Structure to design on (561 residues):
């Protein structure tokens, strides 16, 4: 029977997996190994700064193991969303890692690097052509918003991967891609039914997240035209069918429909069966092609520079009037800032946020519990237009929190406990997501140029 | 009085992209799933009230295959926004967890 076997090593490249599990998967003779390397989940900073949220050494460890087993088995390796955000710097950072691995392990590699950054002019043209759509309640994309874009990427579908697979590469390092595209490209390249390919891909994109006990680990999918199997090869784990079914809806608005580039995976009629305690069989999935090919955009704007400071509040007299105290400090702060900067800095040029851990710090105004704590971790947060102003404003704010007067105050030596010296921590640039849109390219390849590189260990 | 947390096999909140929050509740027992779905305790109105959002923006799915209810709402602030308190959206499930049955 026609089938494609996939090995997914973990949810994110660099999160680690037991080598023993990869070995066991290799005994099942997978046709390819894939791993997603990114996400928007850690927030907008990583796309903004181009930095990775996983360490280089951890990525190198995982990729080195994957490549050594894949080379031995002569099967391709597919990595998506390189560097975390999938920006061009993420792809370039992987080039260095691949060169180092090639040199250290004496691998000759044919590598495809696929980029996914989108330039502002392209987006402007697409707006003029009416080919940018908003998602949810986000307003239509304006030329003005594009001017504020710091960096943006488009999420590629399987097509650019398939282009690279046709060139018989050992390794694909892609920029931003949908998690499932990374895993669905090879089965579709081999002509498998897109419905089972997409659904299996969605289940294994997080590695062994569906297995019990949950840990970063490898998982296998066997994809056929009318059914697929998910299997954990770790003898210490089980794979309950409920977890597989539940993963279909993971990090997705709907449990039944998963929008992907080129169409929608529909799992309304999917059936999940427990084959044995480590294997689940799935049937009944379908994939509905979109009339127009669309890809999702991700983009961030730079909003300033952050400095934070942690201040512990224990005094019960102060705790009983904390909100009033913080309002008073907020008012006083601008007097201090004006004394330093005069008219150069207005209150609109900086943002002060008080996060009261112990009082609604996690859920904010949605918090249903209304008890009184005996201590509060007060996290002071200043965002200003440049790093120096951010630190200067924080220094003024911290001093005010420590030394201002409040009604009934007995502790006149200081109102807060600081756990560190220095107390203030510069956090660097701050970004926010501003794109929640899709764009219709002329083809699935238009936004994703591919570069082929022969990496020779002797050249390094 | 039992709460939703007492009859759940899984109960979580998470981002569905930077602009949406999604809640998955899977029931341990089939009868609890039917009890909760038929009682309509976890309704769009209840969610809109608990999470201070527009009722029309609440998406609620009954997923009978795995005895699960899924709820998705727009985030009050995008993940990582200056006013956001939970980048991953991973700790926003508590009001649902404490719903009395």
């Amino acid at each position: 029977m026609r089938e494609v076997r996939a090995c997914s090593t973990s949810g994110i490249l660099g999160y680690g997996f037991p080598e023993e599990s990869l070995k066991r998967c290799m005994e099942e003779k997978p046709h390819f190994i894939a791993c997603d390397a990114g996400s928007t989940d850690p927030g907008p900073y990583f796309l903004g700064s181009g930095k990775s949220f996983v360490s280089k050494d951890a990525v190198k460890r995982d990729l080195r193991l994957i490549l050594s087993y894949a080379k031995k088995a002569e099967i391709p390796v597919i990595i998506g969303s390189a560097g975390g955000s999938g920006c061009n710097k993420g792809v370039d950072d992987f080039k260095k890692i691949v060169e180092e691995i090639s040199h250290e392990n004496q691998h000759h590699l044919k590598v495809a690097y696929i980029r996914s950054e989108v330039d502002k002019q392209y987006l402007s043209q697409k707006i003029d052509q009416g080919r940018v759509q908003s998602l949810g309640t986000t307003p239509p994309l304006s030329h003005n918003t594009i001017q504020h874009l710091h960096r943006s990427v488009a999420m590629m579908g399987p097509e650019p991967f398939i282009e690279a697979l046709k060139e018989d590469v050992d390794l694909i390092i892609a920029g931003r891609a949908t998690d499932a595209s990374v895993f669905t490209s090879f089965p579709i390249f081999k002509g498998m039914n897109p419905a089972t390919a997409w659904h299996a891909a969605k289940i294994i994109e997080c590695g062994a997240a569906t297995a019990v006990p949950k840990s970063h680990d490898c998982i296998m999918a066997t994809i056929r035209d009318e059914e697929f199997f998910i299997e954990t090869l770790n003898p210490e784990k089980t794979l309950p069918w409920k977890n597989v079914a539940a993963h279909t809806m993971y990090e997705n608005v709907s449990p039944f429909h998963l929008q992907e580039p080129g169409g929608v995976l529909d799992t309304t009629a999917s059936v999940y069966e427990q084959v044995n305690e480590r294997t689940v069989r799935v049937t009944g999935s379908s994939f509905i092609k979109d009339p127009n090919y669309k890809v999702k955009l991700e983009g961030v704007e730079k909003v300033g520079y952050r400095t934070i400071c942690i201040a512990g509040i224990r005094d019960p007299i102060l705790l009983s009037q904390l909100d009033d105290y913080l309002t008073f400090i907020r008012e006083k702060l601008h007097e201090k800032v004006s004394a330093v900067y005069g008219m150069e800095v207005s209150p609109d040029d900086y943002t002060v946020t008080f996060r009261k851990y112990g009082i609604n710090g996690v859920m904010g105004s949605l918090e249903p519990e209304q008890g009184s704590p005996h201590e509060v971790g007060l996290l002071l947060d200043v965002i200003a237009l440049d790093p120096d102003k951010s630190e200067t404003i924080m220094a003024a704010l911290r001093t005010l929190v420590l030394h201002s007067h409040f009604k009934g105050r007995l502790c006149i030596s200081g109102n807060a406990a600081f756990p560190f010296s220095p107390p203030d921590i510069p956090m660097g640039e701050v970004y926010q997501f501003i794109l929640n849109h899709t764009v219709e390219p002329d083809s699935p390849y238009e936004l994703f140029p591919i570069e082929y590189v022969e990496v020779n260990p002797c050249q390094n | 009085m039992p709460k939703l947390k007492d009859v759940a096999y899984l109960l979580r909140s998470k981002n569905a992209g930077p602009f949406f929050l999604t809640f998955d509740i899977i029931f341990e027992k089939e009868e609890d799933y039917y009890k909760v779905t038929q009682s309509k305790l976890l309704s769009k109105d209840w969610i809109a009230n608990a999470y201070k959002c527009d009722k029309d923006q609440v998406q609620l799915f009954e997923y009978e295959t795995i005895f699960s209810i899924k709820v998705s709402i727009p985030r009050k602030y995008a993940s990582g926004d200056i006013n956001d308190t939970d980048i991953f959206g991973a700790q926003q499930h508590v009001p649902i967890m404490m719903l009395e049955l």
